[in-house]
Design a protein that fits this description.
It is a single chain. This protein is an alpha/beta fold. The protein has two domains: about 140 residues, Orthogonal Bundle (serine acetyltransferase, domain 1), CATH 1.10.3130.10; about 100 residues, 3 Solenoid (UDP N-Acetylglucosamine Acyltransferase, domain 1), CATH 2.160.10.10. It is about 45% helix and about 15% strand. It has a six-stranded mixed sheet with strand order 3-6-9-12-14-15. The protein has a five-stranded parallel sheet with strand order 1-4-7-10-13. It has a four-stranded parallel sheet with strand order 2-5-8-11, with no helix packed on it. A hairpin with a 4-residue loop joins strand 14 and strand 15. The longest helix has 18 residues. The protein starts with 8 loop residues before the first helix and ends in a 5-residue tail after the last helix.
């Protein structure tokens, strides 16, 4: 199976605006909230900036101008907004519980935490490590997800539910990956350098799985819920168990899109 191609990002912003109008009419009690969060902004980048600022916990940030920092990051790296749109699309394509892009944008914890990571990663990549770690700590308090700003995460990522996710500093996640709650991409030992997993395109990581060390989960593979992976997983296979063993499967599927939990 070939991974679906993402829509043009301009169309996705227009889709979100249209959906916000529909939802506001269906639920007038939320009309003002939705207008302030989405339709009052002239661009997706500005709406995204507002979303990130509003969702970071103020208890740690009252003495820091989050607004200036977030705007600086989105201006300095326009890819943050475009990657975010692909993340938004991923939710709509892969989660049958998502009835509208408005729901995904405003209410999905995994989506919002991922966008906060993208801002923190901008500062990490700019060698402003202490500031990046500060933003990470604020995000952890807000979302109960710990994504190190040094991790490298591509676009089209669907983080379902999100609570309890831990992603280490040297982890790499390629595009079009789906991750469920309580997943850990962790390191082993005290060595420096690459010590966290690489997750290739098209992978699905089941709820509660742990992938530990500088290992690779191959393209279009699946890690079953609750599994502990301590060695490389070949392309187009399933890893299941503690410790995980490799099971062959239908190579025509892309687990990140299929979202099938069974082995």
């Amino acid at each position: 199976m070939t991974s679906p191609q993402p829509q043009d990002t301009t169309n996705l912003w227009h889709t979100l605006l249209t959906a916000s109008t529909v939802v506001s009419k269906e639920e007038p009690a939320l009309a003002s909230f939705i207008h302030q969060a989405i339709s009052s902004w002239p661009s997706y980048s500005e709406a995204l900036s507002n979303l990130i600022i509003k969702n970071l916990n103020p208890s740690k940030s009252s003495q820091v101008s989050l607004e200036d920092l977030v705007k600086e990051a989105l201006k300095g790296d326009p890819n943050i907004a475009s990657q975010s749109l692909f993340d938004l699309q991923a939710i709509q394509e892969r989660d049958p519980a998502c009835k509208s892009p408005v729901e995904a944008f405003l209410f999905y914890r995994g989506f919002k935490a991922l966008q906060c990571y993208r801002v923190a990663h901008y500062f990490w990549s700019s060698q402003r490590h202490t500031l990046a770690r500060y933003l990470q700590s604020v995000s952890v308090e807000s979302f109960s997800m710990d994504i190190h700003p040094g991790a490298r995460i591509a676009q089209g990522i669907f983080i379902d539910h999100g609570t309890g996710i831990v992603i280490g500093e040297t982890a790499i996640i390629e595009k079009n990956v789906s991750i469920l709650h309580n997943v850990t991409l962790g390191g082993t030992g005290k060595t420096s350098g690459a010590r966290h997993p690489t997750i290739r395109e098209g992978v699905m990581l089941g709820a509660g799985c742990k992938i530990l060390g500088n290992i690779t989960v191959g393209k279009n593979s699946k890690v079953a819920a609750g599994s502990i992976v301590l060695q490389d997983v070949p392309d187009n296979t399933t890893a299941v168990g503690i410790p995980a063993r490799i099971v062959e499967r239908d190579k025509s599927e892309v687990p990140a899109y299929e979202m099938k939990q069974e082995i």
